[in-house]
Amino acid sequence: MLTLHHLNNSRSQRILWLLEELGVEYKIEFYQRDSKTNLAPDSLRAVHPLGRSPVLTTPHGAIAESGAIVEYLVRHHATDAFSVPQDPEALQQYWFWLHFAEGSLMPPLVANLVLEKARQKGSKPFFIKPITNKLIDGILNAYYGPNLAQSLRYVESYLSKNTWFAGDAPSGADVQMIFPLESLVASGRAKDFTAIQGYVKRVHAREAYKAALEKGGEYAYA
User: Fold this and answer.
1) SS3 at position 79
2) What is the pLDDT at residue 137?
3) pLDDT for residue 97
4) Sheet-wide strand order for 26-31
5) Could you tell me if residue 4 is left (phi over 0), alpha (psi between -120 and 50 degrees) or otherwise beta?
6) Quick one: pLDDT at residue 218?
7) Where along the chain do its domains lie?
8) pLDDT < 70 positions in the chain
9) What is the fold, at CATH topology level, of the domain defined by 88-206?
10) Which superfamily, per CATH, for 2-83+211-216?
11) Which ranges in the chain belong to alpha helices (H)?
């Protein structure tokens, strides 16, 4: 039996979607973020030393990291309709988007969110605030902002010509890409990217995704 250790408002929601798409029998162990720190509870460390979600308990042990979990599930439980693409060009796109999601898209996205939250929170004493805000703006404008904008333009261009990220059907690449894209849409950062918005709506309309939402509970990005 597979067990998904599921944290509210986290990347583990996309693993729920994949499990539902594959029709795999599984259990869910629920965890809640700390109301003050927004971090995962210490109890997750008993499952995996990193104490982060998602973690999937399998007959072969506990496995962490979304990409690794996606690859494990697709390798062991793939169906004809949700598997690794066989077409060489689609397979190359599959590999790229599977790793682009966390390797290129998420780092500047998270950095932007953290730095902007730090700016809103302000500094003490008050006369330091203009200095810290200027520093934050400098970092965002010089690096994280342009990187995120470039990635979004690239994704938008690709989705304007393709329904899914790797071939004519959804795959593990879509599972990886949905989390950053739906968080961008939910936060309003994708308001000028119609192809990204349409993609997120397509995923959210799938019956397996709806079932995953029903089972997973609170999820701010849907």
Assistant:
1) strand
2) 63
3) 98
4) 26-31, 2-7, 55-58, 61-64
5) beta
6) 86
7) 2-83+211-216, 88-206
8) 114-144
9) Glutathione S-transferase Yfyf (Class Pi); Chain A, domain 2 (1.20.1050)
10) Glutaredoxin (3.40.30.10)
11) 12-22, 66-77, 88-100, 106-121, 129-139, 145-159, 172-187, 194-204, 207-216
